[in-house]
Write a structure and sequence with these properties.
This protein has 286 residues and is an alpha+beta fold. The chain contains six helices and 15 strands. Helix content is 20%, strand content 27%. Strands 7, 8, 9, 10, 11, 12, 13, 14 and 15 form a nine-stranded antiparallel beta sheet that branches. Strands 1-2 form a two-stranded antiparallel ribbon. The relative contact order is 0.13. Bound molecules: zinc ion.
Length: 286
């Protein structure tokens, strides 16, 4: 009942906004929509902070919160996420025009603007998100299906201390995405498996060569999909294995940390890791 009324009000409001926009009467305050977030039952301050590339403390500060408690339906002010830039809609803009101007596929523009009641209707002065285009691999797919993993932040270059030779501080060469043990993992792009089997650091892992100078790395799997051995050619979107917590010890070691997918990108000449975060965020938009 309540929902029905709300829907009706929204429809009325939309009709009004349409009319006003057509008459050129309306100029919504900048950022009115882009910067607010409605709390869902599964959210925590931490999970929201991670999604927006900020910290729980900064969110508390921004919202004048005294405790970490959140209420379902509560509205929070949030910053523009690090993987988006914000854009002030100009007169004559439509989502399609903006998408074209910035060479962003329209479906990704719409997915990046879920905070808007209707991303197909924008007006002068409104703030919208524009996804940052990664340097390549723009036709890749996110390796986990929507709804099967937790919000994640950029953990690339964080410090990690486990090594096969004991505790040594090293730089984390990928992004960790927390998901339940057994969650299916799909190949982000097509390629050829160049490494398969146990690694003391990565557990059951796969390295897939995606072009002449790039490898994608998937680690800590509980098990592989069939035939995931060196030399196998995999296609984009193919099931390659399942999330687990393997690694940090001799073959079979598991449970040294919570189950997650560690995803890394390496350039091969010279061999060096690349920050995969922007690629993941781009792929995640579908
Ligand atoms: Zn990791």
């Amino acid at each position: 009942m309540f929902r029905l009324i709300r829907k009706r009000i929204r429809r009325k409001l939309r009709t009004y906004l349409f009319g006003a926009a057509v008459l050129g009467l309306l100029s919504a305050p900048a950022g009115a929509y882009a910067a607010s977030y409605t709390v869902k039952p599964t959210d925590s301050l931490w999970s929201i902070a991670v999604q927006y590339g900020t910290t729980a403390d900064k969110l508390k500060q921004l919202n004048g919160l005294k405790s970490d408690m959140l209420l379902d339906g509560q509205t929070l002010q949030v910053p523009t996420p690090s993987y988006f830039t914000s854009y002030n809609v100009q007169a004559g803009d439509t989502m399609w025009i903006i998408a074209n101007r910035y060479s962003i596929p329209l479906n990704k523009m719409i997915a990046a603007n879920k905070q808007l009641a209707n991303p197909n209707v924008v007006w002068q002065g409104l703030t919208v998100n524009i996804p940052k285009r990664p340097a390549g691999f723009r036709d890749g797919i996110f390796p986990l299906k929507a709804g099967t993993y937790s919000p994640y932040g950029n953990t690339y270059a964080d410090s990690r201390s486990w090594s096969p030779d004991g505790e040594t501080v090293r730089s984390h060469e990928g992004v960790d995405i927390m998901a339940a043990e057994g969650t299916p993992i799909y190949s982000a792009l097509g390629g050829t498996i160049v490494q398969s089997g146990w690694s003391e650091l990565g557990g059951w892992r796969l390295t897939i060569k995606t072009d002449s100078t790039t490898e994608f790395y998937y680690a800590h799997m509980s098990r592989y999909a069939p035939n995931m051995k060196k030399g196998t050619v995999v296609s984009k979107g193919q099931l390659i294995g399942y999330v687990g917590s393997t690694g940090y010890g001799p073959e079979g070691t598991k449970g040294m940390f919570d189950p997650h997918l560690h995803f890394g990108i390496y350039k091969t000449s010279p061999y060096a890791s690349v920050d995969p975060f922007l690629f993941l965020k781009w792929w995640e938009l579908g």
